[in-house]
Amino acid sequence: MQACGFRDIYDKYKKSNIIVFGVSYDSPRSLRKFKKKWNLPFNLLSDSKKEVAVKYGANSPLWTKRITFIISESGKIEKIYRKMNVNTHAEKILSEITQKK
Questions:
Q1: Residue 2 and residue 25: Cα distance in Å, rounded?
Q2: H or E element, residue 79
Q3: How many C-beta atoms surround the C-beta of residue 14 within 10 A?
Q4: What distance in Å separates the CA atoms of residue 31 and residue 22, rounded to the nearest whole number?
Q5: What is the mean pLDDT of each run of 10 residues along the chain (101 residues)?
Q6: For position 21, what pLDDT does the model report?
Q7: Residue 32: what pLDDT?
Q8: What's the chain's Rg over C-alpha atoms?
């Protein structure tokens, strides 16, 4: 699962001052349960009205598309990952970001 990949190396993200969060159509209550169940150390944000997903091109009829956005400190989208291997994705992202610093 993609979220667990980020969970498993979250300390490395934190040490590199990289903020991680997830966005989903699910309700805040559902996301709290999901976060607790999977012991996720980062925030999950509810986009139940699908406004964020539409603006970022991540919307689909049933669920949010699995997309990763790298956003700079100034708010600029630096890179978009639309295809990924969930088993290696978190490590790949971390490596690419830290190489830029």
A1: 16
A2: strand 77-81
A3: 13
A4: 10
A5: 92 95 94 97 95 90 82 92 90 92 65
A6: 94
A7: 97
A8: 13
Residues 84 and 3 sit within 8 Å (Cβ to Cβ): no
For 34, the token pair is 């999901």
Q: Are strands 21-24 and 43-46 parallel, antiparallel or unpaired?
A: parallel
Residue 57 in tokens: 């091109």
Contact 97, 6 (CB under 8 A): no
CATH of domain 2-100: 3.40.30.10
Say which DSSP state 75 is in. Answer: S
Could you tell me the residue ranges of all domains in the chain? 2-100
pLDDT of res. 66: 85
Report the alpha-carbon distance of residue 54 to residue 47 in Å, rounded.
10
